[in-house]
Specification:
The structure holds two protein chains of two kinds. By secondary structure, chain A is mostly helical. Helices cover about 70% and strands about 0% of the residues of chain A. Chain A has one domain. Chain A is elongated and about 55 Å long. By secondary structure, chain B is an all-alpha fold. In chain B, α3 crosses α4. The longest helix of chain B is centred in the C-terminal third of the chain and has 22 residues. Chain B starts with a helix and ends in a 6-residue tail after the last helix. The chains are: A mainly alpha, B mainly alpha. At the A-B interface, α3 and α4 of A face α2, α3 and α4 of B.
Chain lengths: ~140, ~90
């Protein structure tokens, strides 16, 4: 919002909810293996926490992220994803074949592959988070603000 | 013009119903088109090969990881396009 919107009540509610939304977002990302969820949904939840602050505090939002930083975070997510794929590519396996990540730690091949898919989920989370915050920020500011 | 429209409509209706007859029955797993190809492999060996306890994760993040990579890039591009259409201030 272009001006501060919240009353005292709204501000206190948002203040209490903010950490819980963050924790729930991280929970959804980390438990993407076991329950519905994963990178996309977790990224959306994390961005909701930032957007909630922005909705209520407006320009005085306590957690402001600039456009250049948002684009960098998004690109970092894709780069992280690509790095995991390229790593196995360099070590002579197929692109995104996680079994190349390591074979020293465990005999069970499934475990290391689960770690690889968790890594790509993290990359997806970063990208979705930054993109949603970016689109929201731009749309509420209007053109050429 | 009206007769042409009517004939076209009739033709589309005939093709539609002829196509509908060939679709697999809902809920019958043995008639699904991909039943003999990759689905049994995902269901039988998904957990063992990928370490993911559910099929959705096994397919999304492991077997079809390259597809997910493309999806992520699409989302990032959507953000960039929104930004470039609406424009940003010069000093930012």
């Amino acid at each position: 919002m272009n001006e501060e919107f919240g009353s005292k009540l709204l501000k206190q509610t948002a203040r209490i909810h903010f950490p819980f939304i963050l924790v729930f977002g991280i929970y959804v990302v980390v438990h993407g293996h076991y329950s519905p969820g994963g990178g996309f949904q977790g990224g959306v939840l994390l961005s909701m926490a930032i957007i909630l602050l922005d909705l209520i505090w407006g320009p005085n939002s306590p957690l402001k992220i600039s456009y250049s930083k948002l684009i960098k975070i998004g690109a970092l997510g894709i780069l992280f994803y690509y790095a995991i794929g390229a790593y196995s590519f360099v070590w002579g396996k197929n692109f995104l074949d996680y079994s190349a990540l390591s074979t020293h730690y465990t005999d069970h091949p499934g475990e290391i592959r689960a770690l690889g898919s968790f890594g790509i989920e993290l990359g997806v989370t970063l990208t979705v988070f930054s993109t949603l915050v970016l689109i929201y920020k731009k749309l509420q500011e209007g053109p050429r603000h | 013009m009206r007769t042409a429209k009517a004939v076209l409509f009739l033709l589309v209706a005939i093709f539609f119903f002829a196509f509908l007859k060939q679709l697999p029955t809902l809920g019958k797993s043995r008639k699904v088109a991909s039943f003999h190809h990759v689905s049994p492999r995902y269901i039988e060996k998904g957990h063992e090969e990928t370490g993911a306890p559910n099929y959705v994760t096994a397919v999304l993040a492991d077997y079809r990881a390259f597809d997910t990579f493309g999806e992520t890039i699409v989302i990032f591009c959507a953000g960039l396009v929104a930004l470039s259409i609406l424009g940003i201030k010069d000093h930012e």
